[in-house]
Design brief:
Elements: E1 10-14, H1 19-30, E2 34-39, H2 42-54, E3 59-63, H3 69-83, E4 88-91, H4 106-131, E5 141-146, H5 159-182, E6 186-193, H6 199-210, H7 217-226, H8 236-247, E7 258-261
Parallel strand pairs: 1-2, 1-4, 2-3, 4-5, 5-6, 6-7
Helix pairs in contact: 1-8, 3-4, 4-5, 6-7
Amino acid sequence: MGAYDLTGRTALVTGGAGGLGAEMAEALARAGAAVAIGDIKEDAGRATADALKQSGAKAAFVSLDVTDDASWEAAVAATIAELGGLDIVVNNAGLEVTALLADLDPDEARRMLEVNLLGPALGIKHAFRAMRPGGPAGAGGAVVNISSVAATIAFPGIACYSATKSGLDRLTRVAAMESGKLGYGVRVNCVYPGLVANEMGIKLANDVVALGLFPSAEEAVGAVVGLTPLGRLGVASEMADAVVFLASDSARFITGAGLPVDGGMGM
């Protein structure tokens, strides 16, 4: 990632305590950025921030419930106070609850809407307010939203999750247009990660088996691989590299775009 130099910039990564978020935070730090880990998981978040510090990066943990407006305001203020600015916001925090539409739980659907769609909308709101001219950071920057290949395919058992990730795509594009029209100087893009064999990916495979959609987790994963032209699952570092690219000056003329990192599955 040496081509994408983020030295002197500060990033806030939501859901950064573990999983893809932690991988993205590490990649941003390797590229030279100071990184705030925003999460509701305080112990894990502090551990991730401490690990970044031990590797030589400038890092901090900020408590953040992405569904709460006041929590966002406090987290952004804390990031600027502790790390000296805010140039990059990665809206990564997400929730997936597998369910057939015939058995949909409205409370679970609402929770996915809050975390996966309202959360990034609030993140964009506070990123714009901080980064636009006259804001407490005020030098422009980049927002990278983490959507999903689920936004572009019809896979059974994830209807509401897919809907929230499709909504995030539209949110990204409208936000990019508003930022440009209003002169905020903030680029807004999204990434569509493919399936990764992490905690969330393994849970999904087991869940679709429990719903009777596949006879085994291996066959569920095989179905995903079979739909993927590159013939394999993704790895977390590949998703993180895409985030670093979109946050960097190498993407300085890219906004309102969605970058698939899915091995061709969603084409």
